[in-house]
Design a protein that fits this description.
heterodimer; A: Coagulation Factor XIII, Chain A, domain 1; 2 domains; 10 helices; 20 strands; globular; B: mainly alpha
Chain lengths: 433, 276
């Protein structure tokens, strides 16, 4: 785990133990995907000479190409039952990698081996035809995703039930709302039930409720021991779901392993700052961070450390960090997230300084962030993520997300959503006139 | 997951028949039937339209060739011969014209799923073949109606249809795999198929033309299909324009076209998704 300094109590440690057990099991699991030294180059014509006439009139003019190395010698394994994340910036080659694994592109070098039945989800609702009914579309889509026609038909009812569209079976797709369409497409994916699922940015579509449904499905897949490879930009998903994650940059594998660390490096790539080059000797497995979390905890009114917070009681947060480098104008952000990685609320703090004082934290200095936070959270498990950034005004922003602590809110007043708010709303019978 | 499923298999990337025969056949059936439904269930008169087209063309050409060019008088049973020929050539023309852009039209599927490439042109040909089957039945109704009596050689029709089907498939494969890279294939084929219409004995029997043009027409791989159809279906005593050479050479050219089609298609198939 990447939070060696975070305090962990009984409740939370139990969760970590489960994770450790899972990790140990995965280490022994056989590989279901083996990628070895994969190479892919796209040839992009400098000038598009795609007509025969142009080629006929310039028979000797060699077509000049710009070579785009989308993948340069990528190797990795994915084990049976693993939830594997692939992260990287746009154009890093991660989608190309997924498409090669899904047999959509052909690799130029290296090999890919895979076990079991594969269902690629590069996009939701591929091959949906607006002129056909949902019944026909579901069968078509199922077959495209690798099912046989019989299997696809057998799963039809389950798909329509999951999408909550049983009444609209014989309606043509063109008469569906876009929301219904997305639900249908997602249901097909869920019910495809392959051994290995390759998923590309599916979470990018749909509203929050839909995203929540995706998350539920991912968790169910994971718990059922399915292998899932997920390409995503959403680090919250990576951190809360992936067993391992891989960072690709410029077609090269930059990191593979702990998802927290992969997410951290992804943020660093995105925001420049501490670049890759700062990975000096010994940097290896230890994250090269700007601050180290010395301690982070919650406490009650009497100043005693607690892991559980009663519903409605204010949260007393205490965090101590130590700067590893000089930090100019640092900003300390705190995000409260649900166990599924959805952000509930957050706030930022800068260091209180007298006017004219330079806002620099020297290497080795410690900073304490402490205070009381109103607690609108409904019962459940939450965690706190700290994000330290510096040089707010300049482009040289270093982001460093750290999951600093987990806690449980207990209470009896459950409700919809994740927070309760004061609502002075009354219901009464209108007097008859 | 069973132990068998855990055996690692090589992933070789997309190909003409990637995913195996079974899957390819299922996709082929689904695509062709979908296309057929889409074409004929979206319109009020449905299938009648697909029948109207050859019949209308037939009426126009019949008027021209019996009253203007007066070729009809020289050829026995000219009206039904013309109808049968139009049905046969109409299939070739429709299938190949649709095939040109078929892979590009299925872009979403090609770029987002593991899809056997060959299925796309095959589905187009199959959809047109449904039409051909129904149109041939109508043509036979007319043939009987015009007083041609049934004969045993009618049983040989499947041979001709198979020849036509295979040749059409080969041309469809070539066109559909080249179009993503060379978009002018579409324009060339629009002209080319019209030229081919006149270079095939559709409007006239081969014996009516002579000289260089006649020899060129005799080389056309489609020619024997139409010449043999006339002899086997309508006019058993029709003089075959020339010897068996006139069947063997076009047949050889047909085989060559099929070979070319397979070569081009398997060469292009793995990269089609990148060209789109």
């Amino acid at each position: 785990m990447s939070m060696p300094n975070a305090p962990v109590g009984g409740e939370v440690a139990g969760g970590l133990d489960a994770r450790t057990v899972r990790h140990a099991r995965l280490l022994r699991a056989p590989p279901v995907i083996e990628v070895h030294d994969l190479e892919k180059t796209f040839r992009i014509p400098d000038q598009r000479l795609s007509s025969l006439k142009e080629r006929a009139t310039h028979p000797l003019a060699r077509r000049t190409y710009r070579e785009l190395h989308a993948l340069r010698g990528i190797s990795f394994d994915v084990r049976l039952g693993e939830f594997f994340g692939i992260v990287g910036r746009n154009g890093s080659g991660k989608s190309t990698l997924l498409k090669i694994m899904a047999s959509i592109y052909r690799a130029d070098g290296g090999r890919v081996r895979m076990a079991g039945r594969l269902a690629p989800f590069i996009e939701l609702g591929v091959g949906f035809n607006p002129e056909l009914t949902s019944r026909e579309n579901v069968v078509m889509n199922g077959v495209l995703m690798g099912l046989s026609r019989q299997e696809a038909r057998r799963r039809l009812d389950a798909v329509l039930a999951f999408a909550e569209l049983e009444e609209f079976t014989d309606l043509k797709l063109k008469n569906y709302s876009s929301g219904m369409m997305v639900r249908l497409a997602f249901a097909v994916m869920v019910e495809a039930d392959a051994d290995v699922m390759l998923i590309d940015e599916v979470l990018a579509v749909g509203d929050a409720a839909f995203a929540q449904k995706c998350v539920d499905v991912f968790r169910a897949r994971r718990d059922a021991g399915r292998t899932v490879v997920l390409v995503t930009h959403d680090m919250a998903t990576v951190q809360s779901f992936c067993d391992r994650a891989m960072l690709i940059h410029d077609g090269e594998l930059r990191y593979i392993g702990d998802p927290e660390e992969a997410a951290l490096r992804y943020y660093r790539l995105n925001f420049g700052g501490e670049g890759e080059d700062s990975d000096g000797p010994g940097a290896g497995d230890v994250p090269d961070v700007n601050v180290r979390v010395i301690d982070a905890w919650l406490e009650n009114e009497r100043g005693e450390r607690i892991e559980n917070v009663e519903q409605g009681r204010p949260i007393e947060l205490q965090v101590i960090v130590e700067a590893r480098h000089d930090l100019v104008s640092p900003v300390f952000g705190f995000h409260f997230l649900t166990a599924d990685g959805f952000q509930v609320f957050g706030f930022n703090r800068t260091i209180a300084r007298a006017a004219g004082e330079t806002d620099v934290v020297r290497a080795g200095q410690r900073v304490r962030v402490a205070g009381t936070i109103e607690n609108p959270l409904l019962p459940g498990r939450y965690y706190v993520r700290a994000i330290v950034s510096r040089n707010r005004s300049g482009g040289d922003l270093a982001l460093q997300p750290l999951r600093i602590l987990e806690f449980v809110v207990y209470g009896t007043q459950r409700g919809a959503g994740t927070v309760s708010v004061n609502a002075s709303v009354d219901a009464s019978v209108e007097p008859e006139l | 997951m069973s132990d068998g499923a855990l055996r690692l298999r090589e992933v070789r990337g997309p190909s003409a028949l990637g995913g195996g025969w079974r899957r390819s056949l299922e996709l082929l059936y689904l695509m062709a039937s979908t296309e057929f439904k889409r074409t004929y269930f979206g319109t009020v008169l449905g299938y009648v339209w697909s029948l109207c087209r050859p019949l209308l063309l037939f009426a126009v050409l019949l008027a021209v060739f019996t009253h203007v060019v007066r070729l009809g008088r020289l050829v026995p049973h000219y009206p039904v011969l013309l109808l049968l020929n139009i049905v046969l050539f109409g299939f070739f023309q429709e299938a190949t014209a649709t095939a040109v852009g078929s892979v590009v039209n299925q872009e979403a599927v090609v770029r987002k799923t593991q899809f056997p490439r060959l299925v796309i042109p095959l589905a187009v040909v199959l959809t047109s073949a449904f039409n051909l089957g129904l149109n041939v039945l109508v043509a036979f109704a007319f043939i009987l109606g015009f007083g041609v009596s049934p004969m045993w050689t009618w049983l040989l029709l499947p041979v001709l249809l198979a020849w036509l089907l295979i040749l059409t498939t080969a041309v469809a494969m070539i066109l559909s795999s080249l179009y993503p890279r060379f978009r002018d294939v579409g324009i060339i084929w629009a002209v080319g198929s019209t030229a081919l219409f006149y270079a095939t004995p559709v409007l006239y029997p081969l014996q009516r033309i002579s000289g260089t043009i006649g020899r060129i027409v005799a080389l056309n791989p489609l020619t024997p299909v139409f010449e043999l159809a006339r002899r086997w279906i309508i006019q058993p005593d029709a003089p075959l324009a020339a010897s068996t050479v006139d069947v063997v050479v076009p047949a050889a050219i047909s085989v060559a076209i099929c070979g070319l089609a397979v070569w081009i298609f398997t060469r292009e198939a793995p990269r089609i998704a990148e060209e789109l």
